[in-house]
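Researcher: Let's do a round of design. I'm pasting the structure tokens now; please hold your answer until I've finished.
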């Protein structure tokens, strides 16, 4: 058994590299086992600074992980609901407090072999960063006390791009990677449309999207893979897809 504690241990797979996992089981706890409430005043002070710099921010709710284990090829974890303000404060700490940010990323592959990604708009906390449409684990993803990873991926892809994952071919299995106390989950989805058609559909969705969270849709290929300002979550995807034999 391998466990995350206050720091990522050396016996987990190397940081920033995706590895296959057979299952993902995240149980959401109702209390505050990590004692996050002790940071409330610091979180609030930082939130006021964040909103002053970017009034478009919304203090929603997400799931932060308290403990993560890798057992028999599967990931098990516990987590709790926190305000988005906690995450913005958490990611500014060095080292971060002993909780773990987590999210799931559906990687959409066009029929002609490109990764379909988005660029975040200036109104977001990740302005200018390029990655596949995805988002934090949220209370809406909780089913019977546990996170439904596939539901999270489907919701985020539909909200940000208009693409319905149930209309794509899901590659069996999941991948996981970690970076600076962030735990990322990935699954690959293959479309029947070429990149140009997929991007045209996403641009049409963007025209009618009230949130305006993204300002560009991009097709990442082997030839242009080094041309963009990626979020850290994309680097394991690029290595796995272009260098790890997942292209087809």
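Researcher: That's everything. Go ahead.
Model: Designed sequence:
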């Amino acid at each position: 058994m391998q466990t995350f504690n206050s720091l990522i241990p050396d016996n987990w797979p190397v940081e920033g590299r995706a590895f296959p996992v057979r299952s993902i089981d995240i149980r959401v706890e109702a209390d505050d086992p990590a004692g996050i409430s002790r940071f409330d005043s610091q979180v609030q002070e930082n939130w006021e600074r964040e909103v002053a710099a970017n009034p478009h921010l919304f203090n929603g709710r997400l799931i932060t992980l308290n403990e993560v284990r890798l057992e028999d090829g599967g990931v098990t974890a516990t987590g709790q609901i926190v305000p988005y303000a906690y995450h913005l404060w958490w990611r500014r700490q060095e080292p971060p407090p002993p909780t773990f940010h987590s999210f799931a990323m559906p990687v959409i592959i066009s029929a002609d072999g490109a990764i379909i990604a988005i660029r975040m708009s200036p109104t977001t906390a990740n302005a200018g960063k390029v990655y596949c449409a995805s988002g934090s684990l949220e209370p809406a993803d909780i089913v019977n006390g546990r996170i439904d990873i596939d539901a999270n991926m489907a919701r985020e892809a539909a909200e940000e791009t208009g693409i319905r994952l149930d209309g794509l071919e899901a590659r069996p299995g999941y991948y996981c990677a970690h970076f600076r106390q962030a735990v990322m989950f990935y699954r690959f989805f293959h479309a029947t449309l070429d990149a140009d058609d997929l991007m045209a559909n996403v641009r049409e969705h963007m025209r009618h999207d009230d949130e305006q969270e993204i300002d560009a849709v991009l097709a990442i290929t082997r030839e242009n893979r080094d041309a963009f300002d990626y979020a850290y979550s994309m680097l394991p995807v690029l290595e796995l897809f272009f260098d790890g034999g997942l292209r087809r």
